[in-house]
Amino acid sequence: MARNKLSIAVAALVIVVLVLQLVAFRVRENERAVVKTFGKASPERVKEAGLHWKWPWPVEEVVRYDARLRVLEGPLEETQTADKKSVLVGCFATWRPGDPIRFLERVDTPEAAERALEQSLRAAQSSTLSRATFDALITTDRARLRWDDLEKEIKARLEKSAQELGIEVVQVGIRRLALPKDTTETVFQRMTAERDVKAKETLAQGQAEADRIRAEAEAARDKALDAARAEARKVVAEAERDSREAYQAFEAAPDFAIFLRKLEALRRGLSGRTTLVFDTGSPPFDLLAPRAGVAPVSSR
Amino acid sequence: MSQEDAAKQALEATVSLSLRVLKVAMVVLAGLFLSSGLFTVEPHEVALVRRLGRVQGTADTRVLKPGAHWAWPVLDEVVRVPALRVERLVTDLFALAPSKETLAGKPAERKGGIDPARDGYLLSGDANVVHATLAMRWQIDDPYAFALRARGREDAEAVAKPLLERAASRNAAGFTIDDLLAAKRDVFLEKVRTDVQDGLNALALGVRVLGVEFAGDVQPPPQVREAFASVAKAIQDRDRLVNEARSQAAAISGGASSEAARIGEQAISEARRLRGDLDADVAVFHALLPEWRRNPSGVESRLLTDVLAQARPEEVFVLRPGENVRVRLERDVKAVREELLRRAKGGEK
Fold first, then answer.
1. Rounded Cα–Cα distance for residues B151 and A33 (Å)
2. Residue B272: pLDDT above 70?
3. Are A89 and A81 in contact (CB under 8 A)?
4. Nearest-CA residue of chain B relative to A175?
5. Which of B238, B262, B266, B314 to mutate to test the interface with A (most CBs of A within 10 A)?
6. Where are the alpha helices (DSSP H) in chain A?
7. Rounded to whole angstroms, how far apart are CA atoms B159 and B153?
8. H runs (alpha helix) in chain B
9. C-beta separation of A257 from B278 below 8 A
10. Of A297, B59, B89, B233, which one has the greatest count of Cβ atoms within 10 A?
11. pLDDT single digits (tens) B71-126
């Protein structure tokens, strides 16, 4: 009896597992699933994450789509802007399956979806950029750049065609901007000319800056020396002012005082390398003059 | 016991043994089944557990840290996310393609215009061209969001790379080439980082951009390399001129300071001398005044003679009465002396 129970339990388990395999399926959070009934898909049978049931094949069949992000990188396309300038632009689109039924009906596989999306992206990019001016793409005045507007416009155009394919366009961007080969030659000529000017300007700036630094230093030096001289004059003037009080002492005998000052001046004048020329009338050289009873002294 | 009973007993014993073996096997299988749910999370990763397709736990509990964990076999699915690793994404979309010269370690050579199918570049706001390779460091900061929207590291980089390229292109289009090459490189890179982060946030990818940097030199095209080198040389010359001027200015300033100090000291010295001389003069005046009052000419004569006696002239000439003298000032003292000597000797004769 025990043997029978065990056998029945094992058999029942096997049958349950097999039946579950046929009628149950799970959908991950990063997936979308569509249950096709006799090959026909309906919106009611689109399944989100969780455990779901279906009739066994061939009545119903589950088709899963990976709902994680995918990136389509478009080729570099030459476009003429509204102001007749040629630019090469490469865009990208980040996408994922949006409406599983449409996706199943119109493209079915990611590869087919990207092929269809690429055509639409090129068309959207071309029609958008042909109405934009060159300085909406490139300018040093950042306020005039219109990349956000252009990308939104390309996305809006792309979404129209993508929705029909069951594709959700999450993001569109311009990833590369270039110029035609012939144009870059002209750009190089301009760049070379600009660099020459810049080199000369830089050198001139250096010279001017150096001159300015030297001039400032010389001006500062003159100012400092003028101040020092003024201060020196002040110090000496103070000393001279003090001397006025002393001069009052000389008023007792001004002639003698003047004599003494002259004498002092003479003393100073005779110091250092001096050559003196006297006649014999000047004391003490009057001693050299011929006198009675004394022979004249020869001198050179 | 008949032969038939013996056979029956042997069969029952065999079946009983088989059942016991089967029970043991089932227990072992059940044990193995349950133990297959054990798993470890490595130090560089975290894990999420999906049960029947849905991630288990709340925002606070669903991320499993490194260590040992258990999940129901068959029902649960373990999703590993390398959240603790710092990844580096590099794009060479704006770089020169490798060539024979660059592979040999020499500067790249190009003639004519740039073939965009071969070489990439960034267009600056002043419509100049610059080559660069950009690198982005990133890390997963929301494992749940990451697992929901990306298949793994490579998948996330496939999504982030065009965002990095877009951010570089659009920001370069607003900077001048000089800003990109030197002056505002850091500002540019920070703007690129911010833009990439904004783009990733819009996708809710659960990725944080740690930084964006130039991988290698940012350089002008080989076709204009010499022109840029001339500017670099001009910058060096400018700096040299300015540095020389600064050096000269420092010397002028130093000289002025010492000259000013010298003038000041000289003035103080002069003032001191003035006061000292005056004091001495007053003292002499007072000392000699009584004597001078008595005999002015005698005192003056004596004082004058003292001065002449103390003088140490190089030369003294004394002329006889009636002798004329003609003084000629010459820098060459020797010549004058010889002339005077000659004349003196001539006079003696």
1. 18
2. yes
3. no
4. B166
5. B238
6. 2-23, 100-106, 110-129, 147-164, 181-250, 254-269
7. 10
8. 3-35, 100-103, 143-149, 153-172, 177-178, 185-203, 225-294, 296-310, 333-348
9. no
10. B89
11. 998 889 999 999 889 999 999 999 988 888 778 878 777 888 889 888 999 999 99
Give the distance from residue A183's alpha carbon to the nearest chain B alpha carbon, in angstroms.
Answer: 7
Q: Which of residues 84-103 of A touch B (CB under 8 A)?
A: 88, 92, 94
B344: closest CA of chain A, how far (Å)? 6
**Could you tell me which residues come within 8 angstroms of residue B190 by beta carbon, excluding any fewer than 6 positions away?**
B212
- pLDDT recorded at residue B1: 59
- The answer to whether A91 touches A174, Cβ cutoff 8 Å, is yes
Backbone angles phi, psi at B217, to 5 degrees: -75, 145
User: B27-38: b or e for each residue (b if 16 or more CB lie within 10 Å)?
Assistant: eeeeeeeeeebe
Question: For A108-122, how does the pLDDT look when each residue is reduced to its tens digit (9 = 90+)?
Answer: 899 999 999 999 999
pLDDT band (50, 70, 90) for residue A300: very low
Can you tell me the distance from the alpha carbon of A105 to that of A100, in angstroms, rounded to the nearest whole number? 8
Burial class of residue B231 (count of CB atoms within 10 Å of its CB; 0-12, 13-18, 19+): buried
The reported pTM is 0.71
Split at pLDDT 50, 70, 90, the class of B347 is low
CA dist A195 and B223 (Å) reads 13
Which residue type does A198 have?
Answer: K
Three-state SS for A145?
Answer: coil
Instruction: Mutation target for B interface from A171, A223, A264, A280: give the one with most B CBs within 10 A.
Output: A171
B214: amino acid identity, one letter: F
Total count of residues recorded for chain B: 349
Q: Give the tens place of pLDDT for each residue, B166-182.
A: 999 999 999 999 899 88
**Which tokens sit at B265?**
């000291």
User: Phi/psi of residue B126, each to 5°?
Assistant: -95, 25
Token pair recorded at residue A235: 């110090």
Rounded Cα gap, residues B16 and A300, in angstroms: 163
- Segment 47-76 of chain A within 8 Å of chain B by CB: 49-51, 66, 68-69, 71, 73, 76
Q: Are A299 and A288 in contact (CB under 8 A)?
A: yes
